[in-house]
Amino acid sequence: MKSVLVTGCDGGIGARICEALGAAGWRVIGVDKEPGLSTEPCRITADIGAFAAEPSGLAAFAENVRAHTDGAPLGAIVNNAAVQRLAPLEALAAEAIIETMNVNLVAPFLLIKAFLPELQQSKGVVLNIGSVHAQATKPEFSAYAASKAGLHGLTRALAVDLGPEVRVNTLAPAATATPMLLAGFEGRKEAFKALKDVHPLQRIATPEEIAKIAGFLLSEDAAFVSGETIYADGGVLSRLYDPA
After folding, report:
1. Are the C-beta atoms of residues 109 and 81 closer than 8 Å to each other?
2. Closest CA to 48 of 120, 101, 124, 118
3. Most exposed: 129, 163, 168, 170, by fewest CB within 10 Å?
4. Cross-strand pairs, 173
5. Residue pLDDT, tens place only, 157-193
6. pLDDT value at position 241?
7. 18's torsion region: left (phi>0), alpha (psi -120 to 50) or beta?
8. Catalytic residue numbers?
9. What are the Cα distances from residue 68, in Å, to 11, 48, 64, 87, 122?
10. Judging by DSSP bridges, how do beta strands 27-32 and 43-45 pair with one another?
11. Distance between alpha carbon 215 and the CA centroid of its chain, in Å?
């Protein structure tokens, strides 16, 4: 058995990833900013976005994770945690930009670095959860889209730097039926239908579907996959939007 660190373990996608990996035999160590939401037996409460300004906090966090492995070597990291601060550029606060970059891009970078010895020893895997917004976005997503584009670039760079010892990939979902997304469309049936219809598959993803793909990318079945961004997008990035 190997351990896997999953950030954002209480989110709609993160929780399903934890469940899928636990069922596949991983010892799951979940991390989230807020306490008490996850039922995972191995759970740590931490604000990973603070690591950029507090290296000592990162060191203490890393030791805490190691204490939770219970002898199962760390074999993977799933960088799933993210924040999404939406606003037009003129209204986007500097603090929101910095927070977005620290959580979505800097923290994954620092976590990979902190656990690199374990990952190298175990011939491990890093899976970054990216987004279709790294490739095609919409108004008010500038901070989020930039952070995810950086994460996709980090995947390629580290696949080159760390190969052959560590595989690094990105899984980039499109709209996914998380509780947060569904709550945002409550009472907006037509808007939700329009969101589904813009995808060629005529629906959005389920968190369970994304978790299954994550499980594959962490498995030995994907042993020759590294430096890749796998888009789970229902075909939306292949579609030309032409209102005419």
Report:
1. no
2. 101
3. 163
4. 232
5. 999 999 999 999 999 999 999 998 999 899 999 999 9
6. 80
7. alpha
8. 144
9. 21, 17, 7, 39, 17
10. parallel
11. 13
